[in-house]
Design a protein that fits this description.
Chains A, B, C, D, E: This is Bestrophin family ion channel. Chains A, B, C, D, E: It is found in: Cell membrane. Chains A, B, C, D, E: Keywords: Cell membrane, Ion transport, Membrane, Transmembrane, Transmembrane helix, Transport. Chains A, B, C, D, E: Its main location: membrane. 5 copies of one chain form a homopentamer. With 303 residues, chain A is mainly α. Chain A has one domain. In chain A, 70% of the residues lie in helices and 1% in strands. Chain A has a two-stranded antiparallel sheet. In chain A, a hairpin with a 2-residue loop joins strand 1 and strand 2. In chain A, 59% of the residues are buried. At the B-C interface, helix 3, helix 7, helix 8 and helix 9 of B face helix 2, helix 7, helix 8, helix 9 and helix 10 of C.
Chain lengths: 303, 303, 303, 303, 303
């Protein structure tokens, strides 16, 4: 995720980092080169003049607009829903720690629950990015818990079960009344929902056929476009084709990036920074020392 | 559902599987053939020149855009709501199993509830696809339960009632306090909602009249289009007509596929994979052995 | 509501039932006749040539698109919200019956609650369609309940109060603990919300001024259109005007139908079928015999 | 709010009441008169021919479409959210009265709560319309309550506190168990939310800058338009300009009306009718006599 | 936030305050000056005539519409969600104060909770605007609380924990039953959610790449536009370019303002006024004297 103050309007025209230009440069150069060739040949192919004008492009533009607008809106909705689910993770781990400190009459035991919740947050991140949570578990959990988690396929779900077991043990020891257990079941259930929601976004892409249709339409459009423009605007054709192709390719590339918001592309969610922040906030509530806040990195990119 | 990493941009242009081309090929060929005939005859019909230009098509394009954008957005909303409802099924069966293990002081009896919940998941899938759940019930339930379910018309609803009866028996045996019964009523109620939501999507189509109007408008548009283009772009007419018809037909076909998300079209939801996954996750929480994870199939298609 | 499998693409072009053609035929014929007259007179009115071309129509098209897209989306949102509210009625009556059977230790008395809930469902339908619920009440309720309901203005609200009284009587008889009464208040409250939601949709139309502006814009557009086309496409004018007018009139007529989803137009919600289905599902949970399932009617229309 | 059956399509063309024509007549006449002048002068200004054609207008149309579509959708969303909040007021006052009658074992005291809730509904209406609630309070509340409310700045919030105090008194008298008090806190909290939601809509307009930009763009567009059309369509220019200006001005005026849905414009919410209806429904549940139902007024307008 | 009655339609054309003109004046002047130069040179650059017409601009307009409409809708959604979250802060602090007065049998101690809640509201505002809350804490809290808050990184979260501790102390003193503690956990949890939601909006911008693409497309469009218009409309070119550039630049600037709704731009949320209002409403419920209501400021701007 790129977090930076809005640059001056002149500078914004020439920003390189955070643009998707690097990703689409090959296609863009190829399209522009082709447009130059068409312009030089005056739209002729082996002596045969391709008869095209702007009409087909404004007709096709119609369905392209529908496709691209839909794809764009849907990708962003996935991105923002994923962000909101991580917001729920923050909110409900905070709520559970507050409740462990104020509803259960066992303040010294709250740190065990907090550790499992922090481990849940990191385990969720590792599951979504398919990385190994062992180092974080080592840091946070006791040996028995780690042994139980190691063979598990759905580690975050198991950690929520272990949070429920903490609650059961307190209840069976008479440290918390049933009505208050019920109050703590609320955030626990919402964490279960957030976990399932993240799995849903990670596991269910936008129907693949959309990607195929949009991709084909854009490329066919950009290949035919020089023939449609060359008679009217002559030598300006390559510039205009490059301009239009840039907006189409950039829209498509950006959509592909944020459609899968848990990756590590520059525009994906900053899961590292967020889990770090959640851990800090929970530790502060527990009265534990915090890790130092990261210095603002120069590149404006959080991962 | 098609789950595959995004192919290279060149390869994506020629993908066959996952495209809707096979479904719309007859119409597309017919339309293109007609456009060729019109082009060869220079837009004449029995010596009479059909006078048309691009104007009517950009005017009609207006309502087409409204219709298609609406249809597309609505179909996808149904698809995503259906997916979210299945996410609720995962979340709340997980929550109930966690609660059975930590709120009821009868851990050995939790497996009976888990079995009924797994049976509920499979029964829901079978109801939505109108298939026979007997094999799954055989595998999961005792004889009495199966006998009670056999004549039932609304099997998943009955299984949720049986989950409620499990809870009643534990409560009457004094193994769980009323306030904690209330906590377990939460996920049980949300499963009832998810069941009703799936029935709603399966039973209430998008108003049929939309399908009729969109279909007619698209076909009339594509039949008239060659007459409107032939004077301006001559021999390029069939190519452009084929291109425009492809985007319209593909949009319509895709909309029809994902509008009914519980079917077995390539872009429909992977109910098989999801019920398998839910069963695995619940079994892992119960400490039971899991079925081996499916090898990633070569065709990228989950059902 | 029209429920039918998607017809073959050729057949779909000539479907009569389910299209809105019958509703808009007079206007469509009038518009087309006018276009024929204009074409025959070559756009002259009493020797004066009306000077118009396509430009005004693409400018006006802009606001028409905004209006129609808005009207269409809003009408469908009302339709779908109404459907979802009826889904809530199904879900929460099911939940209440399940709870009556498993939370209250008085299984034999559950049928009284179930009868009041079924009566609520039918009363809601009758209130929304302004029909007389007496026959359904006769079938379901005892004499005292019927006498109490007869003079009432808000019958469904009173039936929910009577459901609450059932709960009060069980609680005062010591058959259900307060915490479980609280659990049953959840679905009861959501039924109250669904009732209020249906009253809201039935009683609050889309601001009438939208209907007026859209109607006027469409008709003025279609009356002026032949003058704008006749110079360019001559004898094709009536066909194109008829085509464009068909899409506009059909969109408007469909919007007017689904905007009030509780009526009995072909595209309205199937309240009869839904209340029948809810009654069947509740009876099955109670172990009572079910009415036979309706044979699929040939006409594909549910009311 | 205008509630009337849909008039016949011919009559709908000439409806005066419910149209926004009266509001926009001055601007519309001014614009049309200017267009007539431009047409008579053939687009000349002091001998200088203003060179304009349709191109700038279709380019500007683009951003106008974005602005107007956004403004329109947002205004309606505010209108509908306000209506839904008033639906919540109905639902949750009904729920509280039902609970007062069935959860608290003090039926004779429920009428005190009902009176405070009815007073809350009227107080909310008066606060939103900045009118004086004294007459309604006089009719509904005892002297002490009125004295307490008189100096208050946030009267509806105080009435909800007084509803809570009713609950506290019943609880302290042992007439209602804590778990049932908790059940009644649900609707009470949702009334607090509905109150805050209405205050939010009433107090936070759509950012004023939108109004400014849209307004300027529309007027500049309509002033320049005759110069762009006069060469192409000559004497038809004033008619077309009037038509296009009508749709733009009407859209803007309607947006301004429903953006603030609590006013007394013809398209605003019928707060009077709604509070009357809520009072009737609550009285019917209490078994009290109802005010006679209003005869349907001839003008179709509810306030 | 600008709160003012809608000015007369003529006056609205010349409003300065509340327009974004001041922000975009430099770019607008530069663009217009460039258009004047192009017009004077008749589209020539060093004797070379730039061949362009309107076609490329209507094609590019397509993607611009998608981008701008998306950006605009998303920015407003963030603005409105932020406003709704602050509405939640109002609603749930009110609910907690009401509950402290009616559920806990310790009315004299409620003021301690109210003070912490008011401090929470101010702390949230200060955190979002990165200002120092010390003055507000000084006014509201005792020395111990202030000492505990001073080193904290997440002050509002800590204040919610302290509200929970108030509840714990009352419960341990036997002044409130567990079921009622549970009722108070509801609003406390929703305040936690509102806090996390504000942090989410403040910390997660719209993907930066959107800003880059939109910015570049708009500027390139406006720089090329004079060449495309000069042949057709000659000396009117600068006026039209200025008009189109104004709408584009204004849309972009407004989007950038409301995208970050917690700032102090004229169109940002009035956090000062809102926290002041919340404090007043809570004090009124507590029976404490209120600060005098602000006189309506002449400039219509709330911060």
């Amino acid at each position: 995720m790129i977090v930076r103050p809005r640059p001056h309007w002149l500078r914004l025209l020439f920003v390189w980092r955070g643009s998707v230009l690097p990703d689409i440069l090959p296609q863009l150069l190829a399209t522009t080169a082709f447009a130059i060739v068409v312009t030089v040949l005056h739209g002729r192919l082996f002596q045969w003049k391709i008869p095209l004008n702007f009409v087909p492009f404004s007709l096709i533009g119609l369905t392209l607009a529908i496709f691209l607008g839909f794809r764009n809106g849907t990708s962003y909705a996935r991105y923002w829903e994923a962000r909101t689910l991580w917001g729920t993770v923050l909110n409900d781990t905070r709520a559970l720690v507050r409740q462990a400190l104020t509803l259960a009459d066992a303040p010294s035991e709250a740190s065990l629950l907090a550790a499992r919740l922090i481990a849940f947050v990191h385990a969720l991140r590792h599951q979504l990015r398919r990385t190994d949570p062992a180092a974080d578990f080592e840091r946070l959990l006791c040996v028995e818990d780690r042994d139980r988690l190691r063979p598990a396929r759905y580690k975050p779900a198991l950690l929520l079960l272990m949070a429920g077991e903490w609650l059961r043990d307190r209840r069976q020891a008479g440290r918390i009344a049933p009505a208050l257990v019920q109050a703590m079941e609320g955030p626990l259930g919402r964490l279960t929902d957030a976990l399932g929601g993240c799995e849903r976004i990670a596991g269910t892409p936008i129907p693949f056929t959309y990607t195929v249709i949009i991709h084909r339409t854009i490329y066919l459009y950009c290949v035919l476009l020089p023939f449609g423009l060359v008679d009217a605007i002559g030598p300006m054709t390559p510039l205009i084709v490059a301009f239009i192709a840039y907006t189409f390719f950039a829209l498509e590339a950006l959509g592909a990036q944020i459609e899968e918001p848990f990756g590590t592309d520059p525009n994906d969610l900053a899961l590292d920074a967020m889990s770090h922040m959640i851990e800090s906030s929970l530790r502060e509530m527990m009265g534990e020392p915090l890790a130092p806040q990261d210095a603002e990195p120069g590149a404006f990119i959080q991962t």
